Amino acid sequence: QVQLVESGGGLVQAGGSLRLSCAASGHTFSVSVVGWFRQAPGKEREFVATIRWSGGRSYYADSVKGRFTISKDNPENTVYLQMTSLKPEDTAVYYCAARGGNGLSPSRYAYDYWGQGTQVTVSS
């Protein structure tokens, strides 16, 4: 089993920045890819970004490309999502997810483990 705990959410004004953290524990040797997803009220959970557990190659949703950066701190088993130029439409609960498969999948169904989520609210 892999446990994921997100932190770093909060309230920020439009144009501001936040950094989310996802701390992984347990059988992290089985993890190949970690992703961030988000879900706004009344909407489907959507893909944000994903990265290989070893770091390096990453993939972003078009809606966040150029504004968000996903990164991996290998010694700490933590994945970060640096969010800049935030917009009100970025408001959502942000979830961290992990999968054992190697592909940088944008599909939520490809991920085996999920965190509890952290709320991000961007005011206009």
How would you summarize what this structure contains?
With 124 residues, this protein is mainly beta. 0% of the residues lie in helices and 52% in strands.
Portion of residues within helices: under 10%
N-end to C-end Cα span: 40 Å
Tell me about the biggest sheet?
A: 7 strands, mixed
Mean pLDDT: 95
Secondary-structure class: mainly beta
Count the E strands. Answer: 11
Number of helices: 0
β-sheet strand percentage: over 45%
Helix and strand layout, with pairings?
Blueprint: E1 2-7, E2 10-13, E3 18-26, E4 33-39, E5 46-52, E6 58-60, E7 68-73, E8 78-83, E9 92-99, E10 113-114, E11 118-123
Parallel strand pairs: 2-11
Antiparallel strand pairs: 1-3, 3-8, 4-5, 4-9, 5-6, 7-8, 9-10, 9-11
Question: Can you walk me through this structure?
Answer:
The protein is an all-beta fold and 124 residues long. The chain is built from no helices and eleven strands. The chain has strands at residues 2-7, 10-13, 18-26, 33-39, 46-52, 58-60, 68-73, 78-83, 92-99, 113-114, 118-123. The strands form two sheets. Strands 2, 4, 5, 6, 9, 10 and 11 form a seven-stranded mixed β-sheet that branches. It has a four-stranded antiparallel β-sheet with strand order 1-3-8-7, with no helix packed on it. A hairpin with a 5-residue loop joins strand 5 (46-52) and strand 6. The mean pLDDT is 95.
